[in-house]
Amino acid sequence: MARNEYAHLRLTLWALWCARNRGGGQFASASVAERVDGAGWDAPTVIRNLDAEADETDKAVSAQADEMRKALTAFYQGGGTVEKKAARLGVSPSTLYLRVEQGTHAVARWLEDRQRAAEAERERVEALQRQAVNKGAALEPAVGAARRQTADPGVPADRTGSTLGTHLAAIRAARKAAGLT
After folding, report:
1. Whether the predicted pLDDT of 158 surpasses 50
2. Is 0.90 surpassed by the pTM of this model?
3. Nearest to 73 by CA among 84, 91, 90, 85
């Protein structure tokens, strides 16, 4: 199996994000240019794209089986050599590499599935929006006629003496005629 570079990059950025958010990291949370907002040097910095992607990657890692999750966490977040990381897990370095490779591909699949689900949801919402626009376009001639009718001074008023009730009744009739109610 070839290494999935995209997933490897996401996991590397995830490890940096975890180190920064857990307070034990040795990484600067913001550059000097980002800290000119006057919030102070110790204010938490939110880097939106990194935070959103790292949070999603964190969910992907958390969704993995226990052995893979531990291997990914040890490999990307743990300090020391691969031999020391493997020893902490109680496995050989080759087993650690195998689990990391399998875990990286599993994280990539999880992220791809999540992206496909988001795209499907976006397409569903867009289809509903198009459907609503089409229904509105079909209704428009009838509503327009109802508006013109109620704007005509010769239209009798409803019981309250206003043309608003008559206007609403005409709209309801137009909707019913168009099959929308």
Report:
1. no
2. no
3. 85
